[in-house]
Amino acid sequence: MAKRIIYQVLPRLWGRGRFSDWDAASFDYLHSLGVDYVWYTGVPRHATGQPFVKGDPGSPYAITDWYDVNPYLADDPARRLEEFDALVTRTHAAGLRLLIDYIPNHVAPDYQGAIRHFDWCDGDWTDTRKNDWSAPETRAEMLRILRFWASRGVDGFRCDMVELVPADALGALISAVKADYPDLLFVAEVYRKENYRRYLYEVGFDLLYDKSGLYDTLRAVCCQGASARSITWNWQWLAGMQPRVLNFLENHDEQRLASPQFLGDARRSFAPLACSLLFNTAPFMLYFGQEVGEDGIEGAGGRTSIFNWCDPPELRDLYLSLHGGPDLRRPEAALLRRYRELLACAKRPAFALGGTWDLAYCNGKAPGFNPDRHFAFVRYDAREAWLVICNFSELPASMLLTIPAELRAAAAALPGGPALPALAPVTVPPFDATVLRLR
Q1: DSSP 8-state class, residue 400
Q2: C-alpha to C-alpha distance for 27 and 36, rounded to whole angstroms
Q3: % of the chain surpassing 70 pLDDT
Q4: Does residue 50 sit in helix, strand or coil?
Q5: Other C-beta atoms lying within 10 Å of the C-beta of residue 377
């Protein structure tokens, strides 16, 4: 399967915050990034205007009506489901698929449907109430909910906090829904690495977040001085699960790359981006505005707010530039160009479907290569081979890398396979990445 790119967006922060703002220009933009799926976050109707609500309009994860959409997303609130259906039609007509959130663990305190729930919440999620999965009516209602959205053309679900819900119930639910809609994509938010295998192979999720794997690894390398060797350790631990994890550097729960709490400058994101996007065939997720340096300053703690109305300037500039307004400012435009270049690389067959060869093991003593601050790998198929070097150091690097005989033999053994050099000279700017075609 070709490399899949998922683009997460809160529709309430795109343009005027309406379904209709996802128009031809917006979809053309997603095509320019190579996007395959749009994850529209915050579609099912959530609680708002109540004393318990966090912020205004409130959290997309405190659902009050699973068979409705948020009125504020519609041009005509009385016809909001029709407008959502039109969004589905436009998304499909643009050649894209769409995901929405499925939240099995909790509902809002003012929820009035058939899901049974307790009068308490997990942690500090005081705008929610914990669902009772021991109740047969809860399990039956959850199946009706998923079938309702699938019948409206939704192509999949990002499933929230699944580790807090009985795994056997989720497995039965996925199996039952897929009996009628076999092509649905189920993406699990899983945090504990020891649960990865269970949720993929027993419960039946198609993909799951590699949050406690590659995301946490790259963040530690970038921000805490951890060794780049840990990137190797992560993929070795994942083994055969690697193609079914979802790589990302941002989402609504995590701090923005450009925020002071993370990298502080979007131009420092290319080393982790090249690794997360290009190292393997796993799908990759972008969070809207990441590609133009949205820094979360207008939110809280380095995150674009999911609780309050806000107006992130980089997102506003991006939307306006796509709809006849001023061009992006030079730094935003330069960042976007680089993202597009790397995303285009990810779609090439060698990256999307080809083999991966980690070079760290044979370059520990290579001139200029620091295995604690540099990470190097080759992606290859029968037609071409590419060398990627990620520099997690504050210093520029020049190195002479060894391309091992085993890799050269593996590439040459492919029908018409590329003949690779034994040595490759490379230079990489600080906190950047170099992508070099070997053949």
Answers
A1: E
A2: 11
A3: 100
A4: coil
A5: 22
